[in-house]
Amino acid sequence: MILVTGAGGQIGSDLVEALRERCGEDDVLATDLTSPGGEGPGEALDVTDRPGLRKLVERRGVETVYHLAGLLSAVGEKHPDRCWEVNVNGLRNVLELAQSHGLRVFWPSSIAVFGPYTPRRLTPQVTVEDPRTMYGITKVTGELLCDYYARKLGVDVRSLRLPGIISYTTPPGGGTTDYAVEMFYAALRDEAYTCFVRPETRLPMMYMPDTLRAILLLMDADAADLHVHSSYNITGLSFSAEELAAAIRERRPSFTVRYEPDFRQAIADTWPTQIDDSHARADWGWRPAYDLDAIVDDMLAKLGARLGANAKTSPSAPKTLVQP
After folding, report:
1. Strand ranges (DSSP E) for 221-270?
2. Contact 248, 255 (CB under 8 A)
3. Strand blocks (E) in the chain
4. What is the mean pLDDT of each successive set of 10 residues along the chain, which is 324 residues long?
5. Whole-number Cα distances in Å, 290 to 1, 167, 318
6. Which residues participate in catalysis according to the annotation?
7. pTM of the model
8. How many CB atoms lie within 10 A of CB 194?
9. Domain 2-162 belongs to what topology?
């Protein structure tokens, strides 16, 4: 049995579907604070409740955990105590059970581990990690825990330092890169968008299909080929807020954006503009598939269908793939 925590979140909702397509609907248990709806097994679970988590693992015969439960950056700044409790103690509970029950674990880290003294362009795998948010602090702590449990205690735990994720399945959930999704909602609703970062703000991003493929590639990899036990740098592409707005405007000419930076701008200013993910490419063959045009075309079509909106794209806009 595969257990997915935080299954109602941005990544979780898509990952559950992908895992069920691959492994069978009855072999993937979706959990969140409230039991996820829809088809397939689902239960309510609080990952900070170690006894409850242990009972569920034993009752369901869990062998692999995709541990996605956590508070994101902007929400974590508003609720720092809860952010630590969920993001750190929740992960520790999973790792303790992994050690005692022989579980395999995937856990997502984030570019939020980086800070103002981290090289911002082509950020290397091993570098300064000096976050300025509680979310980032919890992710650095989580990386150290993963490395410790892997090296000292033999736990098979694998992790990716994810950039901003763009998805049409679930609404934004309180992250600093949410503007990259919110723009599409506004454009498809023919609404002007107020962006909370400056137009020149450039951050690493990844489209959800690439994210899911990366997670599954990493989990399929031979353990002997994996040389990073904290968290692998990974990315799809980098673009500025205005470059994204311009790409959307090519397909939706009436789309307008006003820029009014808020507290999230200070967070974004401490994060890299471009990530070096050469270790992931070398160790387990990572290559992104989507470039900006491909993301915009697919998001407008898929999100437009979900919203019941007109998502016509320019016929001249190429749907190309990123070259390795």
Report:
1. 232-233, 237-240, 257-259
2. yes
3. 2-5, 28-32, 42-44, 64-67, 104-110, 156-162, 164-166, 193-195, 202-207, 232-233, 237-240, 257-259
4. 95 95 95 87 96 98 97 88 97 98 98 95 96 95 98 98 93 84 96 97 97 98 97 97 98 96 92 96 97 97 83 38 33
5. 31, 13, 12
6. 135
7. 0.91
8. 13
9. Rossmann fold (3.40.50)
